[in-house]
Amino acid sequence: MFAAIAGSYDLNNRLHSFGLDQRWRRRVVKLAGGLEGKKVLDVACGTGDLAEAFAQAGPNHVQGIDFTPEMLDMARRRPLKPASCPITWEVGDAMDLDVETDSVDVVSIAFGLRNVTSPEKALAEFRRVLRPDGKLLILEFSEPENPLIRGLNRVYTNHIMPVTASLIAGDRSGAYRYLPKSVETFLSRSAIESALKSCGFSNVRQIPMTFGVCVAYLAEGS
Question: How far is 185 from 209, CA to CA, in rounded Å?
């Protein structure tokens, strides 16, 4: 499914978020704090938007991992921007990372946790590879708490976006009908926070963005 939409993934993200997806990712990078000399692991990196944003923020190295080779093919075509650190791209499974224990300073995952078969297993893996003082940053869509905004958002994501995005992508896989449904059926904000604590994370914070359409979760490994 994700292989089918890889070629138009960035374009659809920009158009259907009205450019907000880039702003959300920049906010996540800022939430990570100082990155000089650090190692960043971006899981479910897709075409590399968030990994690239991290690479420009001063770390030593960024590693992007994704389950879909076609997404990584698009990521590898990105020319490194000035002042970016090296980025490596590898096929990998969020629930079984080929990464050493206690080896990275920051783990991030943007709009990918809800697509993992067992989010709790993925969170446990993130905790394993993080250094004791490391940070986890999750960026995920959510259901706005305001009833009016939630209703408008559902109309847009369930009835308008799937049609226009599928036309742009020339997609018949149903990817853009699956994606909004995956948001509605995914863990609630409180359930995500509980899962993070159960996996050993501390100082868990939620940062809603754009009326709660998107939420960043920040947690520490210690």
Answer: 20
The count of residues in the chain is 222
Place of tokens 């995914």: 186
pLDDT, one tens digit per residue, over 190-203 is 999 999 999 999 99
- The CA–CA distances, whole Å, from 27 to 7, 15, 23, 209 equal 25, 19, 6, 9
Chain centroid to CA 162: 20
Strand-pair partners of 88: 63
Q: What is the pLDDT of residues 152-206, one digit of tens each?
A: 988 988 888 888 888 888 877 787 787 777 777 788 999 999 999 999 999 999 9
**CATH value of 18-143+186-220 in 3.40.50.150, 3.60.150.10, 3.90.550.10, 3.40.50.880:** 3.40.50.150
Picking from 71, 58, 161, the residue whose alpha carbon sits closest to that of residue 110 is 71
Specify whether the backbone of 44 is left (phi greater than 0), alpha (psi in -120 to 50) or beta.
left
Residue extents of the structural domains in the chain: 18-143+186-220
